User: Fold this.
Amino acid sequence: MKMIAGVDLKYRLRVAWAAHTGAPATTAFNAEEHLGRFLARDTFTITDDHPDVILFMSGGSERRALALADPQRPVLLLSIRGNNAYAAATEAMAWMINNGMTAMLSDISEAAESGLLEGWQRVAGAWESLKGIRTGLIGTVSEWLVASDVSAATLKDRLGVTLVGIPWNDLPDYTMSEPDVNLLSRFGGTDPEQLGEAAKVLTLLRKVISENDLHAAGVECFSLVQQRKVTACLALAQLNTEGTVAACEGDLASLAGMLAGKALTGKVPWMANTTCLTEKTVILSHCTAPFDLVREVNLPSHFETGYSLAVDGDIPLQEVTLFRFSEKLDRVFLEEGTIISRPRLRDACRTQAEIEIPSRGLALLRNRPLGNHLLMIPGRHSRLLELAFRYKGFEVLT
Assistant:
């Protein structure tokens, strides 16, 4: 099966075809043959049931297409060239827009050449992969995150994700856990006592994730560091490195975005503070970051408290994509940029990156921010992410 950026494209597109009443009996065969010119045979299924794609084979097929379409499911309308197929697809598209459906329209050849067809498969598969998964909120959303508390109902309705609340008081004392060997071996030369404490936190989080059958977790970590003087920074960094999405401060808007980012690109995004805006750049910082994102890692104390250990690493200068969901999961900030420096701000969280982005993005961050935390993925992914977000009905801020 084809792989793109670490994503296994095993999702089989559900494709229906539409033609005028009285179309020849060979139309079904011709539709499948036509699709086979642009899609591998093992990547699509011909079906009339909840299609992802409707292929127009002729004019006069509009009502057939409307009967096939699922009003709750985004659909890509494709046409063959000639036979008035594109005209029919245009009429159907107009009806869908007027009736609040999510749809896109293209000639099938152009959709294949532009990457839209492959992108649609990837997007449909990514969103499908999130349906039914369980996430946990360990503790509560941190009190200062007043624009990041996504309700369980919203997560379920918008992403198909179930949220489970897990109070810290219901968990065993982390000190009763054995230190995680993966984390210990990663930083063998570090202060053994502090590293051992951080590794015990990781063992506890692994147990919580396993016992509750979680695919991801938001962790309210400040109560832990304030009460026990140990951080979850290294634990979250290790989990994200391994591909288990873990958001700090109990930020559920970031958790939702991290889940989406991983499903779409195969990479767990870095969650970071919007620390400073300059004339041309945004500076991001946080005390945790996936270990595979950074190099030359040091483990200083946690910035806000001065306790325990944090991740201080250099992020390579590279092109990146930034995004952020609103707390209602109905709007999204999306922008591409380039890391141009590694600041050394003394009054900010430990891992830092200065990113040059277009002026429109800076204006949005100044005037219409969706929240403090931004998510960053190495590489240019805005085209794919914009398609994915529009597929789900997000308003992409401009």
